[in-house]
Specification:
The chain has about 220 residues and is of the alpha+beta class. It has 2 domains: about 180 residues, Electron Transport, Fmn-binding Protein, Chain A (Pnp Oxidase, Chain A); about 40 residues, Rubrerythrin, domain 2 (Single Sheet), CATH 2.20.28.10. About 20% of the residues lie in helices and about 30% in strands. It contains 5 helices and 11 strands. A 7-stranded antiparallel beta sheet has the order 2-1-5-8-9-4-3. It has a two-stranded antiparallel ribbon with strand order 6-7. A two-stranded antiparallel sheet has the order 10-11. Strand 6 and strand 7 form a beta hairpin. The radius of gyration is 18 Å and the shape is globular. It binds flavin mononucleotide. Flavin mononucleotide binds next to strand 2, strand 4, helix 2 and helix 3.
Length: about 220
């Protein structure tokens, strides 16, 4: 069957977020691909009935959180099984707000996107979007669509069923793991010499030719740690 063969194309799973007038919205997406490097362009495909898509059409801005393989199943259920039309998803799953975007704190990477083009088809809208920033990278295993279909989906459905019956979000979901730094506690740190940036100007706003005052490497050699 053609659909089965197409399952051989396996993407990761991501939370796509956008800012509505007075709140953040978000949707689980798998249809994301990097399609150019100069500039860095991603294609993000949204179903036409997605509310997140509506908001991105209006604002032209969105952000991605790359989900890790050990993400709590309720996160996937929250963003994939219900619509922001009726639910405030970021009230159920605590997000991390950074420079006007909302992210899943435990994500493997956080990516800021600006839409440069769109193609509207019968079922989906494709956004071509330029990467404005990609940060907080962690080299761990990502959750793939294949993992989701093969083994994870049942856990996600169970988590959603439990939530629907009890109205309770799993307690562990919004707890910070012991000893782990919050994003607010993390500092931009030079991965070459260990220099920790502590200036008044936000690190993101430093000019592109800014260099580490200790060892002279560029901004791209800094990580949030
Ligand atoms: C595994 C999985 C993958 C999904 N992939 C996409 C996708 O690539 N694009 C999309 O628009 N919706 C996708 N969805 C569906 C949306 O997450 C879902 O319709 C969501 O409720 C939309 O929320 P919203 O109305 O708040 O935007 C996926 C759902 C699941 C469970």
């Amino acid at each position: 069957m053609q659909q089965d063969a197409l399952f051989a194309i396996s993407n990761g799973l991501y939370v796509l977020s956008a800012k509505d007038q007075n709140r953040y919205v978000g949707s689980l997406v798998d249809a994301v691909s990097q399609v150019a490097i100069q500039p860095n362009l991603l294609v993000v495909s949204c179903m036409n009935n997605s509310y997140t898509k509506e908001v991105i059409l209006k604002t032209g801005e969105c952000a991605l959180s790359v989900l890790p393989a050990d993400v709590n199943p309720f996160v996937v259920a929250n963003f994939g099984f219900q619509s922001s039309k009726t639910v405030d998803k970021w009230k159920l799953v605590r997000g991390l707000e950074i420079n006007g975007n909302m992210y899943i704190p435990q994500s493997l990477a956080k990516i800021v996107l600006k839409v440069t083009d769109k193609h509207i088809y019968k079922s989906h809208t494709l956004f071509i979007a330029e990467v404005k920033e990609a940060f907080d990278y962690r080299n761990d295993e990502p959750l793939t669509y294949k993992m989701y279909r093969d083994e994870f989906k049942n856990k996600v459905m169970e988590a959603f069923e439990r939530y629907r019956k009890t109205g309770q979000v799993p307690s562990e979901i919004n707890n910070q793991p012991k000893g782990e730094k919050t994003m607010e506690e993390k500092k931009w740190t030079c991965i070459v010499c260990g220099y920790v940036y502590d200036g008044d100007v936000p690190f993101e706003d430093l000019p592109e030719d800014w260099v580490c005052p200790l060892c002279g490497v560029g901004k791209d050699q800094f990580e949030l740690r």
